[in-house]
# Entry
Amino acid sequence: MNSIHDDTCPSFEGTLEMVGRRWTGSVLQAAAQGARRFGEYRAMIDGISDRLLSQRLKELEAAGLIERTVIPTTPVQIRYQLAPDGQALVNALLPLAQWSMHRSGPRGARRVPSPA
# Structure
């Protein structure tokens, strides 16, 4: 079994912290479905505020996981899509998502406890 070595731990911890932020998983999941405009993300992610969606998109862009494309039309359109590293992260998270679904059982019978 692979282990997390001391030299990779800070990078790993930083990635876990970023992915674990509220709504980041939902934004990545929406981005994995293709290039989207801000309003499309907002419609896909029920309950997220404009401010928080904007913040998450900026963080993911700064981390090189999301690409922002400006389309020079009137009005200007901005689209966000997964960057190659973002796609690699989503692919890496798929086993975790499958594990989580397996743990929850049929119709959420088994729940993962919330952190205290």
